[in-house]
């Protein structure tokens, strides 16, 4: 465990890294804009090329903030799941919440061709996709909470969550088998993940959901530290296990469900970022880990999005793949360097 000065220096470096990654993410893109012009636009000045100003304020800035919210939300939800289940392999996918979001999107996109009139709305635009994914994730969350009220064993809840994920994945596979090629392509494209194309209203909704999830997580910090030493120890410290489990599950549902609904299923961040933060700060105290994973998740997602958009190119790579390609070697390097896992 490090000293407070060590943590202050670590957070200072992380915040500098966040600002740098934010600037890089806005400065680089398919259209080449001089960095001095980008800075001038961010400082409120007017640019010589009006189209650059439009691109920066209407596309790149909202995309960068979306990346920060999605990365922070997924990373914190992963930390909550790993602590609740005392399992380093747990992540936001273990409760089936992200799978539920995928099921909602799959029903909207592919259900229209299989069941004519099933989705009378038929509007598979970004807004309806986000709504369908949100409904899917919260229906699965509701089912998990009903089960959590009847099951006292946390490990049993983990297995039940994995079963929910398996069921939703199986339904998506059946839908994929029977749907036509065009709808299947649309669903596969959504599953690649993307932090672009969110409107101002959608961004505010995502911000509100993420903020609620963060506030609920902060309320659980003391209980989460007790959970690391086992449920019996937590109970002896006066922690209300049932109430804490509900709060952690709701916070995870808000953070992971909101991010998946608006950015698609992005798997790696929730699993890896908590390990990154533990290795960097060498600590298990959630007073340090919660802000650390929020900043680390935002940095990782900004970096991945910058790479995925292939600067000066019209092509965009799947961000779901880039997060694993960039993040996995970093986690492996940290574990090899430290020779042990902090958990």
From TrEMBL:
Superkingdom in the source lineage: Bacteria
Compartments where located: Cell membrane
Transmembrane segments: 64-81, 93-115, 127-149, 156-178, 203-225, 246-268, 288-304, 316-336
Alphabetical list of InterPro entries matching this protein: ABC_BtuC-like (IPR037294), ABC_transptr_permease_BtuC (IPR000522)
Pfam families the UniProt entry points to: FecCD
Keyword Hydrolase tagged: no
Keywords: Cell membrane, Membrane, Transmembrane, Transmembrane helix, Transport
Topological category with respect to the lipid bilayer: Multi-pass membrane protein
Annotated family: Belongs to the binding-protein-dependent transport system permease family. FecCD subfamily.
PANTHER family reported in the protein's UniProt record: FERRIC ENTEROBACTIN TRANSPORT SYSTEM PERMEASE PROTEIN, TRANSPORT SYSTEM PERMEASE PROTEIN
Protein name (Swiss-Prot/TrEMBL): Iron ABC transporter permease
Taxonomic source organism: Pricia mediterranea
